[in-house]
Inverse folding.
């Protein structure tokens, strides 16, 4: 049975106000197209989770989607800070639950395993001293062990290089937190650069990250990670990351960009058309990774 849907329908049917949403992808495969559609649908009062909230979450925070952020490290990679995030945090508009990278992944591991918490073999750090860190006694040795609570998002939003229309999701390159976030979440939705017919990707089983029976829906969204990158397909659009830091210093600048590039375009396809074919072609990789994987 096909699980392929249009992006707007998939978001509308899967994500509602007040939900906890984890948008995965570490460095590459960040689901920008899905996040922008969430902005268009004017979602509110979300708890957003992410190991590395960067440009996408800054845009979603600027658009007013989130009341709370659970995260580890926030910044514009290689560029600087996140102006909307900083303004919302300093103004008391955004509650923060900050962890280390290791702690965030352990929270997801506990959630995926159906456990209430995950033990840590870790020394205290500035974060744990600031917010406190629960501890339990090991039932076998009596050792005092630090723990972090499980994280079970309502929805995980993923972007992948390939999928089939039964929802099987294929990834190559840096896996990041995709698997952990997906398996810890109650519902998984995904965008993919290309969606193929069922059973046509069986020869790529080594790239299979998430099996289709766990996925609610998938939609084909070329350049769905732009301006981040997709290994083997296209490079990061560094210019946009740099421009955001400058224009997002004021709320007027942030809202003007969102009106121009997100709220002012009806779909991701319109966003790509606005960028232009020549602009997107310049971002495509020359290594042929996509075709090489298909033929392997």
């Amino acid at each position: 049975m096909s699980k392929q849907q249009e992006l707007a329908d998939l978001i509308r049917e899967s994500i509602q106000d007040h939900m906890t949403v984890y948008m995965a992808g570490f460095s590459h495969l960040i689901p920008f197209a899905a996040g922008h559609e969430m902005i268009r649908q004017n979602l509110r009062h979300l708890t957003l989770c992410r190991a590395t909230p960067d440009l996408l979450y800054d845009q979603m925070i600027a658009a007013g989607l989130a009341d709370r952020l659970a995260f580890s490290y926030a910044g514009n990679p290689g560029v600087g800070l996140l102006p909307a995030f900083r303004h919302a945090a300093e103004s008391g508009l955004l509650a923060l639950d900050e962890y280390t990278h290791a702690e965030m992944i352990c929270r997801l591991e506990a959630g995926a395993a159906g456990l209430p918490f995950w033990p840590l073999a870790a020394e205290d750090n500035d974060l744990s001293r600031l917010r406190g860190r629960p501890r339990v006694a090991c039932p076998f040795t009596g050792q005092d062990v630090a723990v972090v609570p499980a994280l079970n998002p309502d929805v995980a939003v993923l972007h992948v290089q390939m999928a089939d229309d039964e929802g099987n999701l294929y990834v190559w390159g840096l896996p990041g937190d995709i698997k952990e976030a997906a398996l810890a979440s109650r519902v998984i939705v995904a965008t993919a650069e290309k969606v193929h017919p069922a059973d046509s990707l069986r020869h790529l089983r080594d790239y299979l990250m998430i099996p289709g029976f766990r996925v609610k829906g998938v939609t084909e969204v070329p350049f769905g990670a732009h301006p981040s990158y997709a290994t083997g397909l296209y490079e990061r659009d560094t210019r946009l990351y740099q421009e955001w830091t400058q224009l997002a210093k004021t709320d007027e600048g942030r809202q003007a960009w969102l009106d121009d590039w997100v709220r002012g375009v009806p779909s991701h396809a319109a966003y790509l058309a606005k960028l232009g074919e020549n602009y997107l072609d310049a971002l495509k990789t020359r290594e042929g990774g996509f075709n090489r994987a298909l033929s392997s």
